Fold this sequence. Notes:
This protein is of the alpha+beta class. It is built from two helices and six strands, in the order H-H-E-E-E-E-E-E. The protein has one domain (7-92): endopeptidase fold (from Nostoc punctiforme) (Alpha-Beta Complex). It has helices spanning 7-17, 26-29, and strands spanning 34-36, 46-51, 54-63, 66-70, 77-81, 87-92. It has a six-stranded antiparallel β-sheet. The longest helix is centred in the first third of the chain and has 11 residues, at 7-17. The radius of gyration is 12 Å and the shape is globular. The termini are far apart. It comes from Anaerostipes hadrus.
Amino acid sequence: MLTGVDCSGFTMKIFQHFGYYLPHSSIFQRSYGTAVSWANKQPGDLICYNAINGIGHVGIYIGNNRVIHAGSTATGIHTSVANYRSVNCVRRIVR
């Protein structure tokens, strides 16, 4: 899975692989799990990013101030500095 998925599809598939359910929407993923402060984020946490109308993007924190995410269905999966754009929230997905 290197291309062909959007951001929420990528996070949905990764969490699904480990037995967790997430909806295929960054807006709805923002309401799953538990809120975590930026200072307390851990690898595996979702980072939700702002857009003009609310949540616009989501990725998975991988540690060392990096996030893995699908930039678009065309550009595929890559890593970036975790705060490369305006962060809305951090969510920890727990059972």
